[in-house]
Design brief:
By secondary structure, the chain is mainly beta. It is built from 1 helix and 6 strands. Helix content is 3%, strand content 39%.
């Protein structure tokens, strides 16, 4: 039975995309998998007991390389971001562009502050 609760991808205008098509400043939702661990003794022959977590994260693209993509949930007019996250591309299951919610990265390129400028140290 399908849940009546709407998924986030049904409420916000989204478009499924690939990492390659994303630009710095795009607003995205990344659906990715993370490891799980359980302490104590468990039967090895029952691997279904250890499901991976599927997580949804949203933010602005602040950097991408051939190995990872970095997003931040907050970006200000001084070119600074808060709490950047970097995702190894192998962990990402799906990526959605959140239409109309990104920012124009070109407007921050001349800022002196190096925070969250692609290629800089966070």
């Amino acid at each position: 039975m399908k849940s009546k609760r709407k998924e986030m991808v049904d409420v916000i205008k989204t478009k499924r995309t690939t990492i390659k098509k994303l630009k710095i400043g795009d607003a995205v939702m990344i659906i990715w998998v993370d490891i799980t661990s359980h302490s104590g003794w468990h039967l090895v022959e029952n691997p279904k007991h250890f499901p991976m977590l599927e997580i949804k994260s949203m933010g602005f693209v602040i950097d991408k390389t051939k190995d990872q993509i970095s997003i931040s949930h907050t970006y200000d007019n001084m070119g600074r971001c808060d709490t950047p996250f970097s995702f190894p591309l192998g962990c990402i299951k799906r990526t959605y562009l959140l239409d109309g919610l990104g920012f124009d990265y070109g407007s921050t390129k001349t800022m002196d502050n190096p925070n969250c400028i692609p290629g800089s140290q966070y």
